[in-house]
């Protein structure tokens, strides 16, 4: 499976993850079947005060999952509804996040119920 990891640099595996997907300058794209990864520029990068579409940036990568430290509810819901798994880990560097995935040290975020269906 191809997995997207939002990050702040594309120079090496040990780059700190960016918790705000819309402002991540790069995405590491990891292919779990081969163990290979590469970096893609975030073409949708925005200023923190501007409106953005972080889910669109991830969808354009044709991945099966995103693996990150933190994600807003709206973005997580958009990705989940688009069929992209949202995986969470406390690890902070790309190389450690990949290792966490390989070792099963992450949790899967689930889709939130629609507001109209919440009691």
Description of the structure:
There is one protein chain. By secondary structure, the protein is α/β, with parallel strands linked by helices. It has a single domain, classed as Dinitrogenase iron-molybdenum cofactor biosynthesis domain (Nucleotidyltransferase, domain 5), CATH 3.30.420. Helix content is 20%, strand content 24%. The chain has three helices and six strands, in the order βββαβαβαβ. Strands 3-2-1-4-5-6 form a six-stranded mixed β-sheet, with helices on both faces. A hairpin with a 4-residue loop joins β2 and β3. The longest helix has 9 residues. The protein is globular, with a radius of gyration of 14 Å. The C terminus is likely disordered.
CATH architecture: 2-Layer Sandwich
Overall geometry = globular
Might you state the CATH topology name?
Nucleotidyltransferase, domain 5
Contiguous helical run count: 3
**Secondary structure tally: strands:** 6
Largest sheet: 6 strands, mixed
Mean pLDDT: 83
Domain count, please report it: 1
Residues in helices, as a percent range:
10-25%
How would you summarize the topology of this molecule?
Blueprint: E1 2-7, E2 26-31, E3 36-41, H1 54-59, E4 65-68, H2 73-81, E5 85-88, H3 94-102, E6 107-109
Parallel strand pairs: 1-4, 4-5
Antiparallel strand pairs: 1-2, 2-3, 5-6
């Amino acid at each position: 499976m191809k997995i997207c990891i939002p990050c702040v640099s594309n120079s090496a595996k040990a780059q700190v993850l960016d918790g705000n997907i819309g402002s991540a300058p790069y995405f590491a794209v990891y292919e779990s079947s081969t163990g290979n990864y590469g970096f893609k520029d975030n073409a949708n990068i925005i200023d923190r005060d501007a409106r953005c579409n972080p889910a669109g940036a991830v969808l354009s990568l044709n991945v099966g999952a995103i693996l990150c430290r933190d994600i807003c509810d709206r973005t997580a819901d958009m990705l989940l509804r688009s069929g992209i798994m949202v995986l969470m880990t406390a690890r902070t560097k790309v190389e450690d996040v990949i290792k966490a995935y390989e070792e099963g040290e992450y949790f899967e975020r689930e889709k939130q119920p629609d507001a109209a269906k919440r009691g």
